Automatic annotation (TrEMBL):
Gene3D superfamilies: 3H domain, Winged helix-like DNA-binding domain superfamily/Winged helix DNA-binding domain. It holds the Pfam family 3H. It comes from Catonella morbi ATCC 51271. It comes from the Bacteria. Keywords: Metal-binding, Nickel. Residues 74-169 form the 3H domain. This is 3H domain protein. Residues 9-62 form the Helix-turn-helix type domain. SUPFAM superfamilies: Putative transcriptional regulator TM1602, C-terminal domain, Winged helix' DNA-binding domain. The keyword Metal-binding applies. InterPro entries: 3H_dom_sf (IPR035922), 3H_domain (IPR004173), HTH_11 (IPR013196), NadR (IPR026043), WH-like_DNA-bd_sf (IPR036388), WH_DNA-bd_sf (IPR036390). One of its GO terms (molecular function) is metal ion binding.
Amino acid sequence: MQSLKGVERRNRIVEILTSSEEPVPGGTLALKLGVSRQVIVTDIAIIRTKFPDLTATRNGYILSGNTGNRRIFKVRHDDEDIEDELTCIVDLGGTILDVFVEHRVYGTISVPLDISSRRDITNFMNDLKSGVSTPLKNITHGYHFHTVEAHSVKIIDEIENMLKEKGYLIEAMSSQNIWKPKSYKEM
């Protein structure tokens, strides 16, 4: 396949991601579009400026045009409650796509998680317990956000109710872009 020019290629990436129900690996996009994986990484960064709902998971990229089955939960809890929080989301049928915090100096700091099973939770907890690093939430006194996805709005509502019942939930909001990039040019 002949490689496409920048704008045309990025439009094609958006089409591929929007029409896919599964994450699309960068390597697959590169093969389909006749470019290197590095070109795809650069294109994804550019696409994110117009489509902030684009999520990178370990299985590939996701761009959901239907955000009704996603919700952002602002939560707060102690380190001892991390596993319980993640388990209640997964056990109800949710996938934790990311964790992010709003830092007063650095703006939004985000990390893709893609946790959808108890095995994923075990692996994540093992990383935390290894002592290599501390949870991201600790830089904002326990406050953090998760983007959660599920097969139906009913499941998302059940997850919200469970987080509220457990006392973790601060606020729930649509998965529209709430990230606020920090700009020092406008201060």
